[in-house]
Design brief:
- The structure is a single chain.
- Strand 22 (about 240-245) and strand 23 (about 250-255) form a beta hairpin.
- The protein is mainly beta and about 475 residues long.
- It has a 7-stranded antiparallel beta sheet with strand order 13-14-15-16-17-18-19, with no helix packed on it.
Length: about 475
């Protein structure tokens, strides 16, 4: 009761005292007059700085990662104008005619890289709200300098180290420091994991790299430039010749190739390496495989065609138009060019030889399933094991992808219907568990619906129907 009484007394006094001070801003305070208007008073000089304001308030938002000096600024609305007042310099930063003004923290890098720095941001973004349009501007809370005004279509964020700002306007990116000094303008700007940037210099119309501190790391002298990994860039020189350079602009593979190999947008656009240090390039229409030491692994004319299966393994086509597999670590063919086609499935290769199908283990170089099976197959996966439904001499069975038989080749048909295998023999159906690979129901039923667990059986001139469980027990309908 005592608390309630005091609270009511305080509210009563507040209503009776229209000039009662209700807020403090350091050495400034606000007072409200009888007409609900506010004035800002400098208490050190007992001087009224602003009067007849609709409101006087601090900048409010979530500024968890921003320099605490944002609290130095006071927002005052008078008439149609909102004024940003610097409480340290005792100066007006800006006055804007608008309906309302809000502030927000500038985003961290939009490129989804890990932010390395915990340094508080010095810049916040103001948004001017009007009925017809909005405009943004930037405010450095440490210096009280502003940068504006720009459309909401312009995206602003910090770099990874939180010491540079990135102005993003369509395909154009502008790097500037927190004092709004432009550092570099780049088209197609990309920020990398180490905080560096690449793009097409707006002035040079050529490609280069800016480091995390905003300095030129790779000069803007290339017709095209794409980062391959943390060590290398693929590049095109002034003559559109392709080569590889490192982060220090040292030439790793000379600019004497026509283009990077096919399959990466256009031939001369982006180099997708075979591995972190092995590349495929073309010269006079022929492909060569070369490493970062400029050592040739597969010379031109060795094969009619080459393509990447997975890291360190190439599918190669020989002059007989058949396919084989080349191991880049062993630097030799591990499977000769005797196959009509080769498909990757997990760590294995589904291969076709003389129109028959078999399975090769890519990493051991072994034939795991011999070429005794029809070319069509289905597969399913349980507990990290791949199972193949294969056909041999007109009968179907199931094998693991590494060659172990799970269901003998005695059935006319097998289909995977999770969690069962529906088997068919002599026109009748049964069910096998994909957990134990044992028969749950033998092949003596005219119809089985594994989804609804329904089963039908012909008895005499009628059809007997029932429902079965995972153990194969059938409850027949009445």
């Amino acid at each position: 009761m005592t608390f309630i009484s005091i609270r009511h007394i305080w509210l009563f006094l507040l209503l009776l005292s229209p000039v009662l001070s209700f807020s403090q801003f350091g050495k400034f305070k606000t007072k409200q007059d009888s007409k609900n208007r506010y004035k800002l008073i400098d208490t050190t000089r007992n001087k009224v700085l602003f009067s007849k304001c609709v409101y006087i308030k601090p900048i409010l938002d979530n500024f968890e990662n921003t320099n605490q000096q944002y609290i130095r600024f006071i927002l005052l609305k008078k008439g149609k104008k909102i004024t940003v007042f610097d409480g340290i310099k005792c100066e007006i930063v800006t006055s804007i005619e608008c309906d309302s003004l809000t502030f927000s923290e500038v985003d961290d890098s939009r490129f989804k890289v890990t932010i390395k720095s915990e340094t508080p941001k010095n810049v916040i973004q103001g948004t001017v709200h009007n009925k017809r349009k909005e405009l943004n501007f930037l405010l450095n809370v440490a210096t009280a300098e502003i940068k504006g005004y720009y459309s909401p279509l312009v995206y602003i964020c910090y770099n990874k180290n939180r010491d540079l700002l990135i102005y993003k306007i369509s395909s154009l990116g502008i790097l500037m420091d927190e004092n709004f000094k432009p550092i570099y303008s780049l088209e197609y700007l990309i920020e990398y994991d180490d905080g560096s940037f690449s793009g097409k210099g707006l002035k040079e119309k050529l490609y280069g790299v800016i480091d995390a501190e905003g300095k030129v790391k790779i000069p803007f002298i290339y017709q095209n430039l794409n980062r391959i990994n943390n060590t290398f860039f693929s590049a095109l020189d002034n003559y559109n010749h392709a080569g590889i350079i490192n982060l220090d602009n040292q030439i790793i593979i000379p600019f004497e190739y026509d283009c990077f190999d096919k399959g990466y947008i256009n031939c001369n656009q982006i180099c997708k390496p075979v591995t972190d240090s092995i590349f495929m390039l073309k010269k006079n229409g022929k492909t060569i495989v070369i490493d970062a030491n400029n050592q040739i692994i597969i010379p031109v004319d060795a094969y009619k065609d080459m393509s990447v299966i997975t890291e360190y393994f190439l599918r190669v086509k020989c002059k007989n138009n058949l396919l084989g597999v080349f191991d880049l670590k062993k630097q030799r063919e591990i499977f000769p060019c005797v196959y009509e086609n080769i498909e990757m499935l997990d760590d294995f290769l589904i291969a076709y030889k003389n129109t028959r199908m078999g399975v090769l283990n890519l990493y051991s170089g072994e034939i795991r399933i011999p070429f005794n099976y029809e070319s069509s197959y289905n597969y399913f996966q349980k507990n990290d094991t791949i199972y193949l439904i294969l056909e041999r001499e007109g009968k179907k069975g199931v094998m693991t992808i590494d060659g172990f038989e799970k269901i003998p080749f005695i059935f006319d048909d097998i289909s995977y219907e999770n969690p069962f295998l529906l088997i068919k023999q002599k026109g009748l159906y049964g069910v096998v568990s994909t957990t134990t690979f044992k028969e749950i129901l033998p092949c003596k039923y005219s119809k089985i619906n594994t989804h609804n667990l329904r089963v039908e059986k012909i008895e005499g001139t009628g059809i007997k129907k029932g429902i079965f469980n995972n153990e194969g027990l059938i409850l027949w309908d009445d």
